[in-house]
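Hey, can you fold this one?
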Amino acid sequence: MTQNLCKALMSAAAPALILLPALSSCSKPAQENATEQAATETSATEQAGTEQAGAAQDESAKNAKGLLKAMADYLAAQKVISLSYDSVFEVVTDQQQKLQVATSGTVLLNRPDKVRTTRKSGFSDTEMVFDGKTLSFLGKGQNAYIQAEAPGTIDTLVEQLRDKFHRQLPGADFLTSNVYDELMTDVTDVKDLGSGVIDGKECDHLAFRAKDTDWQIWIAQGDTPYPCRYVITSKGVDQAPQFTMTIRDWNASAGAGQGDFSFTPPAGAKKLDIKDLAALKETSDLPENYKVGASK
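Sure. Predicted structure:
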C-alpha cells in the first residue's frame, strides 16, 4: 500500500515535474522582457528628458534673441541719447597677474552724425567731439588736442576710430544703426538667464558665446530696454580677462542730446598733428606702464 501510495504520489507529481520546468523556462523570458521594458522606459524617459531640455534650451535662446532684438530696435530708434558709464578693463601681465583699469565717462549722441564723449581715469582726462565732419581729441591733462577730417555718420565714425585712429567710441556696440547684427556675429550659443538687478533697475540677463569671446548683457525691463551692463570675456587670452561696462543716467528724451557739438580748444592748448596721435597719450586705452613688454 505504501508502494501504491508512492506510485500515486509519483503519478500526481509527474505533471508537476513536467510543468515546473516549463514554468521555469517561461519565467526567464518574462524577467528579460521586464528588464528590456524597464530599459526601454528608461531610454524613453531619458529621450523625453533630452527633448524637454532641448526644447527648454530652444525656448531660452528664442527668448534671449527676442529680448536682444527688442533692445537693438529701441536703441536704433532713439534720435538722441545721453548716458554716463563706468568701465573696467582687465589686463594680464607677463607674471600672470590680472589687473584692472577703471574708467568713468559720458556719452552725448545726436543721430545721425554728432557725438561728444568724455573719459576720465587715473591716467587720463579726455574729450572727443564729432560734428559730422571733423573729429577732435582733447587731452585735458596735457592741454593738447588733435583734429582730423572724418566726414560721415556715427556708423562710419566707429569704423574710422577703430581702423584708422586705433581708438574706441565708448559704448560703440550700442550706438550704431545695426546693433543686433553686430552683436550676433559668430554667436554659437544663446541663453536667457532670467533677471538681475543693476543699480536698482530690474534687468533681463542674457548670455552669449562666440568663437573667441563669451559675453553677457543685462537689459532694462520695461518700455526703455537699454543696456545696463555689458561684460565681454576673452576666452583665448590667459586667465580670460574681461571688459565690463555699466551704464547709468540713461536718457533718450527729446532734449537729451541738444548739446553743443562744436569744439573750441581751451586757452593755451597745443595743437598736434594727426600723425602724432600717439603723443596724445591720454587718449590711449592703457597707461604707459601697461604697454606690452614694458617693465613695471
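The two ends are 114 Å apart (CA to CA). Let me know if you want another pass with a different chain boundary.
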